[in-house]
Amino acid sequence: MTQQQEAVRDDTVRGKAFAPEYQGALGSLSVNSSLTDVLARGREELRAAQAAGELRETARCGLAVAEAYRRLGMAAEADAAWKASYRTARDAADEGAMAWALWSGGTLARQRGALPLAYRLLRLAADLGKRGGDVVVRGYSLAGLAETGRIQGDYQAVGELHEQLLAEARLRGEARHTVWALEGIAQMHRNTGSHDTALALFEEAARTAESADDQRGRAWALRGIADVVSIRDGDVERALTLLSEAEVTCREMRLSSALAYNHKMRGNVFYRAGRYAEARDNYALALGEFREMDESRGTALSRLGLAKALARLGRDRAETAAELAELRHTLDRIGLRHARDMVDKAVAELGVGPLPSGEGRAVLPAGRGGSGHAPTAADSEGARR
């Protein structure tokens, strides 16, 4: 039995969430450890492993460093760290550590909006995990592939995989993985209009995360609940209360990306309630946070929300149209398959179309040549590890 399989067995017995990306000398760190603490400890142990010439330990400490950098929004540092971890693991002929490094790199690529690269790295990670007998990294890599497909809106392709991974996580008692799968499935139901089902799944995810002491997973679940009660019930105050509760966890654990998505969701809640000035302020806050961490998808979605709020507040129609045209191109370039529908819905809602496309053709609003489902600016968001 590998070290990671042993960890799965032990934490299954305890029924608590664990962080398999914290390995070697860092294996005692909690899933709820502050990311600044993880980074400080990881860098310390990494230097010690390098000084001792311990390649396997160097690779595994480097993984924790890469993940801390990524979740803190330090994309360039995360990119250098996962690549260094992979090279060291390759030198040590440690396929499991190579797979974990590739998983980290693929997750970072998705976070930065480089979806083709994310697919490639995560597929390599899943293959290496299978070859090396590490069931955990293989599961996490398959989950990464499923999540990448989900944020593109390819629900038919990845819906079954989400369900499969949920069943496997429940069978092994992996609470954190179970929470991730529940939230992903809930997000797909929310985006396709099955709000009752989505709410039930988000609430189950929150309960599971709480009982497993997975504060990160619970923060994402609370955000999902807030989204649904806002859009289904129009319950602004409950949604804001849930988001405020989740924000406390995001700040305590320094979850930069989760905090930015929390602020963007707060903008969505205010926008739906017609409180456009407050929506504008929250979208602008999230936009700055996403730009700082080089998260292109979050940046584009915040820009879309901000453009809509500014239009409602009297922004010039031509400026709004130009912004939406540019956003449509940006989202298409990232690879979000529903991006055209998202922008076209805004065009129809605000009455600023048709937009000029890059080829000089007009972009028609949804319902006039567009596809049937038109997601909001909240779509394509979901749980992230």
TrEMBL record:
Pfam families according to UniProt: TPR_12
User: What superkingdom heads the lineage?
Assistant: Bacteria
- Which ranges of the sequence are coiled-coil? none
Q: Which InterPro entries does the entry link to? A: TPR-like_helical_dom_sf
Q: Where is this region: Disordered?
A: 356-385
Q: What is this protein called?
A: Tetratricopeptide repeat protein
Origin species, per record, is Streptomyces corynorhini
